[in-house]
Design brief:
Blueprint lengths: L6 E2 L2 H8 L10 H9 L8 H14 L12 H15 L4 H12 L1 E2 L2 H25 L2 H15 L1
Antiparallel strand pairs: 1-2
Helix pairs in contact: 5-6, 6-7
C-alpha cells in the first residue's frame, strides 16, 4: 500500500523536540500513536506544528475504537493521493503537495506506481460491475478512471 512508503521528513526533528524515539514512517503504528496522543504541540516550531496538526486532522480523525491502529489513516492517505490526482496534479506535484501540507515525503515514482495499480483495480471493478449489471458502480468506476488517467 502507498502509505507503507510514506515518510515523515521531520521525524528526527520531532524526536529531538519530544525526547522520544519516533520512526520516520508516517503510518507506522508507533508514529501514529505518538502523534495522536503523546506530543505536546507547544514545543514544536510553527511549520512543524502546522504540518502535524494537518496530518492529525486529515488522517487520524476517525471515531474507531482501535484508532489509530484501525487502518483508517492508511485508507485516508491512499484516498488523498487519488483525490490529488483527480484534481489534475501529476505524480511530482502530488509528492510536492504532500510534503508541503503534511511533511510527508513520498517518491514520485512510488506515486506513479500506486496510480497505475489503482487504474488496474478500477478497470477490474468496471468490468465486473458491468457483468453483474451494477450500472451505478460501473459509471462511478468509469468516472474515476477518466479522472486519474487524465
Amino acid at each position: 500500500m502507498i502509505a507503507d512508503r510514506a515518510r515523515f521528513r521531520a521525524a528526527r526533528k520531532l524526536s529531538r523536540a519530544t525526547g522520544m524515539r519516533i520512526p520516520d514512517l508516517a503510518f507506522h503504528g508507533a508514529f501514529l500513536e505518538v502523534v495522536s496522543s503523546g506530543i505536546n504541540f507547544e514545543y514544536l516550531d510553527g511549520p512543524l506544528r502546522a504540518q502535524l496538526l494537518e496530518f492529525v486532522r486529515e488522517f487520524l480523525s476517525c471515531g474507531c475504537r482501535d484508532s489509530p491502529d484501525c487502518g483508517c489513516p492508511e485508507r485516508r492517505f491512499a484516498r488523498k493521493v487519488l483525490e490529488l490526482r483527480e484534481e489534475g496534479l501529476d505524480h511530482r506535484e502530488i509528492s510536492a503537495r504532500l510534503l508541503e501540507e503534511y511533511g510527508i515525503d513520498l517518491y514520485p515514482a512510488d506515486i506513479l506506481s500506486y496510480l497505475e495499480e489503482s487504474i488496474h483495480v478500477l478497470e477490474a471493478i468496471r468490468e465486473v460491475s458491468q457483468i453483474q449489471g451494477k450500472e451505478p458502480l460501473r459509471a462511478a468506476s468509469e468516472r474515476h478512471l477518466r479522472s486519474i488517467v487524465g
